[in-house]
Amino acid sequence: MKNNTWQLQEAKSKFSQLVEDAINKEPQIVTKHGDMVTRRW
């Protein structure tokens, strides 16, 4: 899995880090059961 891809449960528990990465690095992708559900940049 790429560094910018998060499983939904992990994205929920580490939301602040996901937002920081989206702001400072690259678009972040959230997946649910392996399917992309959102991408934020």
**Rounded Rg:** 9 Å
Q: Assign the structural class, choosing from mainly alpha, mainly beta, alpha/beta, alpha+beta, or little secondary structure.
A: alpha+beta
Q: Report the CATH superfamily.
A: YefM-like domain
The overall pLDDT, averaged over residues, is: 90
Shape: globular
User: What is the third-level CATH name, the topology?
Assistant: YefM-like fold
Describe the protein's architecture and organization.
The protein is an alpha+beta fold and 41 residues long. It has one domain (5-40): YefM-like fold, CATH 3.40.1620. It has helices at 8-13, 15-24; strands at residues 5-7, 28-32, 35-40. It has a three-stranded mixed beta sheet. The longest helix is centred in the middle third of the chain and has 10 residues, at 15-24. It is globular. The model has no long low-confidence stretch (mean pLDDT 90).
Helix-strand layout with pairing:
Layout: E1 5-7, H1 8-13, H2 15-24, E2 28-32, E3 35-40
Parallel strand pairs: 1-2
Antiparallel strand pairs: 2-3
